[in-house]
């Protein structure tokens, strides 16, 4: 789920991790880019983002949970509506609705 670089989720993990702070320190704007197309190794990017908040990211369950536990259904819907992360759309559409 590292492709779910949802800015709200990051800011809820640590208030410093705003899109402006990330852009200032790492040079990319999570509000305007498609992480799936922008980052060849998204885990490396997550390590950099977590590092801004003095946290480690090692692709472990706890790291991933920290990034998604604060997300709501509307956050997932917003990602779906954004036309970013095509693999998320494929995942979402594969979920049975009945």
Walk me through the structure:
- The chain has helices spanning 7-13, 19-26, 35-38, 42-52, 61-68, 73-81, 86-94.
- By secondary structure, the chain is mostly helical.
- It contains seven helices and no strands.
- The radius of gyration is 13 Å and the shape is globular.
- The protein has one domain.
- The chain starts with 6 loop residues before the first helix and ends with a helix.
Give a brief rundown of this model.
This protein has 98 residues and is an all-alpha fold.
Using brief descriptors, characterize the structure shown.
single chain; globular; 98 residues; mainly alpha; 7 helices
What layout of secondary structure does this protein have?
Layout: H1 7-13, H2 19-26, H3 35-38, H4 42-52, H5 61-68, H6 73-81, H7 86-94
Q: Enumerate the spans where pLDDT stays under 50 for 5 or more consecutive residues.
A: none
Order of helices and strands: HHHHHHH
What is the residue-averaged pLDDT?
A: 79
Radius of gyration: 13 Å
């Amino acid at each position: 789920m590292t492709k779910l670089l949802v800015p709200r989720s990051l800011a809820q993990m640590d208030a410093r991790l705003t899109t402006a702070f990330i852009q200032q320190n790492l040079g990319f704007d999570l509000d305007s880019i498609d992480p799936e197309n922008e980052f060849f190794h998204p885990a490396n990017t997550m390590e950099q983002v977590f590092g801004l908040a003095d946290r480690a990211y090692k692709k472990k369950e706890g790291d991933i949970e920290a990034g998604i536990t604060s997300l709501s259904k509307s956050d997932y819907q917003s990602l779906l509506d954004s036309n970013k992360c095509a693999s998320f759309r494929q995942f979402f559409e594969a979920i049975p609705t009945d």
